[in-house]
């Protein structure tokens, strides 16, 4: 396997680490010089990609890639990878599989009802609307090429360095109460597991990559605080809080995501079925930072 990743961020790093023993090489992109240097130090091939201009070196690498993962988000101009490297990918003679990291935000608001991969996409936010368009573009493109495409609709991502305990340690922990509000989450290690298996098996289809328990966000903060032995932040009413437009938009959607397809893909057992197992292990092993 020779894996090329567009957008080497938090999830992509975990995926690369999961697949490193199965790959001849792994390549990734970033627009940040420091991150490119870090990638090279970790043994990856690193390429600059700003999302607006093609890079001939990327085009050459794609000709050898067998697997392609898209972790770079779209914008109002569309999907940056397709905009800049569509022809390179179309001409990639060895390519066998494409993966695309999306979001459960594409479903929009379902007022707490259960949804699955067959549920119609009714995005609320602009960024989710752009995701729906990008998903469709990749489905059309992969179909034209006759290649399997796995679309991973990710729930709220967390893991080491990116979790409620980090927020509490920095004095930023808040318990926000909006009646009936629940979110699904997903530990980055379970994202890596799902993508790894789908890539190896060259799967085609859409997967909700989410945990087993959609839960109120304030419950997660309380659980983390109790583990750490720190004061549980006071409960604050959503309507009276001053939140950024981005933060407020997350509370504009409420749904419960079924993950039956994910469980079938990974053999029925998640590494972290709920936030409880994940937070308890991160605290016990001191791996939450």
TrEMBL record:
SUPFAM superfamilies: NAD(P)-binding Rossmann-fold domains. It comes from the Bacteria. The keyword Transcription does not apply. Keywords: NAD. InterPro entries: Epimerase_deHydtase, NAD(P)-bd_dom_sf. The keyword NAD applies. It holds the Pfam family Epimerase. Residues 88-209 form the NAD-dependent epimerase/dehydratase domain. This is Nucleoside-diphosphate-sugar epimerase. It comes from Cohaesibacter gelatinilyticus. The lineage of its organism: Bacteria, Pseudomonadati, Pseudomonadota, Alphaproteobacteria, Hyphomicrobiales.
